[in-house]
Amino acid sequence: MQARELEAESPGYSCPLFLRDESGGDYMYYGNYREPRFSDRLDYSRMLDEVPESMKEYWAKALTAKKRPAWVTEVFIDEGLISKELVTVNGVVDNDLAAELAEHIKAEDVLKAFKTADAEDGPSMRLYWEYLECVGYEVELYEALAARKRWMVERLLERSEAPSP
Predict the structure, then answer these.
(1) Which terminus of the chain is more solvent-facing, meaning fewer CB atoms within 10 Å of its CB: N or C?
(2) Does the pLDDT value for residue 160 go beyond 90?
(3) How many Cα atoms occupy the beta-carbon half-sphere of 60 within 13 Å?
(4) Cβ-count burial 90-127 (b if 16+ within 10 Å, e if not)
(5) What pTM does this model have?
């Protein structure tokens, strides 16, 4: 394994952070961050006391969106929103069946799982705290990205202004 790969697997690895608002506009560079420690799974009390309802609603909608990563289906199985026994055939999870069942999970189901205590019957889901520390801001990276965007906009304008054949 190369040094770069080892560095990427360690919790201290630094990388640029890009965020985009809900409108789906451009990504913005917010600096370089590292994760000084691994994530923590929140317990039931912290989910109730410290996580705003709006954040739970956001993640419930995101996890049940039509376009979502395949790993979400695995989380639904792990957290009990999809019965592992129901989607296991000959000891192997049938991913197609699991994905089909995941399509029927609604944001309300995820919200209910967020509010279910671990010892209660039914599925319970938790969010994770992510620990990020800003370790710098690369002005050169920002300037290079801004220059590239200006170049792309200029090319698009040139094309739109070109006479039609």
Answers:
(1) C
(2) no
(3) 21
(4) eeeeeeeebeebbeebebebbbbbbebeeeeeebbbbb
(5) 0.70
